[in-house]
């Protein structure tokens, strides 16, 4: 039961992580996907305050609150953005989430920076740094550096801004924080424009490349246009024209509307080159695009103001109605107490019925989900028990009371192999996967320790670069390891004081085959020669057939076994 609950919780966590990552990706291209990002963030926040309103999901709620704050800021609602980010910070501090406290601090700092309150901006950046230092949040240090660089650029301390931009870039590249890498390139492209224009152009190109990678072609074209302007200011007209051409070609090939700024800067390039016809042509395009953009933005602003007005109007109507209802209720209370009490009672019953109905629907869904999980678990247990029964049936015919302890220990290790497999199992949307590296390391050590040969020094070396594996493959691999390690511990080191057992599991990218290699430095044996005393070799051969694998063995210097399978 606990296993089923933990698997259900893990699946819910993975689902929420994917939804938050999707909103992040939509926010990266806010110009085209901003409304969709707002919609999905609002829907997810609603779920986190209703369906997922438990302690296990508090962190996700804070993450979505910060996303909503940034979206409010991008749409110009700075007051709402600041209020929501401060609420997220309070939640993170209340439940002691260091990484989320850190993130909330720099989001709050952005809001104050946008509002030009640089004193408060610096206050929260300092708080973010203290949180980073106390909890060693090295992987996200780059974000603090980027925000400090932006702050120093706003207060016109260019040297400090450059210092933090370079530090942020180094940290972002080290931990591959894509958003911080883009922001660092943008900052350096701006900060170095007068001091080292060639470096500034280079960083603008790198920023453009980053935006192309996330398919934000409009922003990429704007970075190329800014690079063109930087070159134009240095009277590098031919180079400036090349970058302007590249920006325009990128937008045309990707069928993206051309921002008016691209036409404006292109007109300026042609004007400096004394090509007045082209300059006039692109200036006209700029003017048309500018007017269209302004009209569109004005329409958006009018719509936003209208929606706010309608909302306020509805709220006023609701408040007036509430006052009227209250007054009428007070006037009628004396003569109709019984009716009012009955009405309240009926309303409470309806609300409770609605709540019960919703809970019943959720419980029904949960029961159906658990039935599926239980069915899958029963299927696995049935298959594993069938393995054990088959082995016991074969051993029943050849059991010897003199070696019954070895038989029991071997079967115990086989069962441990299957139990450990289920312990390492993780359920995903598409398949059941096992953390193979941890599984074979723990299994090999478990089998080795079960024989506890204190007079021998036996070393176990395990190397696995195959991270995940389906349970259909992991089970026979685990049983093969169990049989081989058991055989080595029982027979290989009888006349050797120091023993070495090597296990390797690697993936050949060229052929797509997985290679399993086992070796010990003990007394070798003929793998294909049937043993009359035990079933280990027959079990291993059967498991290899189950993997549909090919076998190579060597018994000259100890024992070596190589299996290749798809």
Which short descriptors sum up this protein?
alpha+beta; disordered N terminus; 8 strands; Heat Shock Protein 90; 8% strand; single chain; 566 residues; 19 helices; 5-stranded mixed beta sheet; 3-stranded antiparallel beta sheet; Serine Threonine Protein Phosphatase 5, Tetratricopeptide repeat; 73% helix
Helix content: over 70%
Derived from helix and strand composition plus strand pairing, the structural class reads alpha+beta
The first-level CATH class of the domain at 374-565 is given as Alpha Beta
CATH level-3 fold name of the domain at 374-565: Heat Shock Protein 90
Mean pLDDT: 84
Q: In the CATH classification, which architecture of the domain at 374-565 applies?
A: 2-Layer Sandwich
Q: Count of helical segments?
A: 19
- Oligomer type: single chain
Give a structural overview.
The chain crosses the membrane at residues 325-343. InterPro entries: HATPase_C_sf, His_kinase_dom, Sig_transdc_His_kin_sub2_dim/P, TPR-like_helical_dom_sf. Keywords: ATP-binding, Kinase, Membrane, Nucleotide-binding, Phosphoprotein, Transferase, Transmembrane, Transmembrane helix. The chain has 566 residues and is an alpha+beta fold. Among the domains are: 193-304, Tetratricopeptide repeat domain (Serine Threonine Protein Phosphatase 5, Tetratricopeptide repeat), CATH 1.25.40.10; 374-565, Histidine kinase-like ATPase, C-terminal domain (Heat Shock Protein 90). It is 73% helix and 8% strand. The chain contains 19 helices and eight strands. The chain has a five-stranded mixed sheet, covered by helices on one side. β7 and β8 (559-565) form a beta hairpin. α7 packs parallel to α9 and α11 (217-233) packs antiparallel against α12. The longest helix is centred in the middle third of the chain and has 62 residues, at 337-398. It is extended. 32% of the residues are buried.
